[in-house]
Amino acid sequence: MKELNIEQFVKMGENLSSAKLAVLLSMAEDNIDNIVVQNFSKLTDVKCVITRAGGRGDNLKDKLFRNALTAAENSKVIDKSERAKFVFFRLFSKLLNKINSGIFSISGAGFKIGIARNKKFISVAISGKIGIPGLNIDEDVIEVETDYYYSGEE
């Protein structure tokens, strides 16, 4: 049997899919986060990071965005320009709209966020649980959003 390497798995046509990478990053077991990021970062033209955020109530969305933006900037997945922040904000807003529901304002949640960028695209994936504390009713959530990324570097 032929061995499968990660590059074959995340290819979409001739290019590496930032969306596939982001989803895999968001689903990595906690104890292998660093290994996954190191291995994915070795792929041609890929920059990536994993971060986490959780909480409850109205500040949850803010926490998710701020943790993701800080991780993306500090790991150099995006540069610190206003343009890059705008692209990231727009991308993250589209992602949050996918998972936004009334339960967000009263629920607790814990998410892992995978962020990956290749030459042309940036993707953010979020995976975790959202539910009402004390009721043991949790919903698994996984979503990904991708956008064109131009930083002016290329």
Structure in a nutshell:
With 154 residues, the chain is α+β, with helices and mostly antiparallel strands. 38% of the residues lie in helices and 31% in strands. The model has no long low-confidence stretch (mean pLDDT 87).
Top keywords for this entry?
globular; 31% strand; Hut operon positive regulatory protein HutP; 154 residues; four-stranded antiparallel β-sheet; alpha+beta; two-stranded antiparallel ribbon
In the CATH hierarchy, what is the architecture at level 2? 3-Layer(aba) Sandwich
Count every beta strand, where a strand is a DSSP E run of 2 or more residues. Answer: 6
Number of helical segments with 4 or more residues? 5
* Largest sheet composition: 4 strands, antiparallel
How much of the residues is beta strand, in percent? 25-35%
- CATH class categorisation: Alpha Beta
Number of separate structural domains? 1
- How far apart are the first and last residues' alpha carbons, in Å? 40 Å
Shape: globular
In the predicted model, the low-confidence regions spanning at least 5 consecutive residues are none
Q: What gyration radius follows from the Cα positions, in whole Å?
A: 16 Å
CATH level 4 superfamily: Hut operon regulatory protein HutP
| Proportion of helical residues | 25-40%
How would you classify the helix and strand content by structural class?
alpha+beta
Mean pLDDT: 87
**Widest sheet, order of strands:** 3-4-5-6
The run of helices and strands is HEEHHEHHEEE
The fold-level CATH name is Hut operon positive regulatory protein HutP
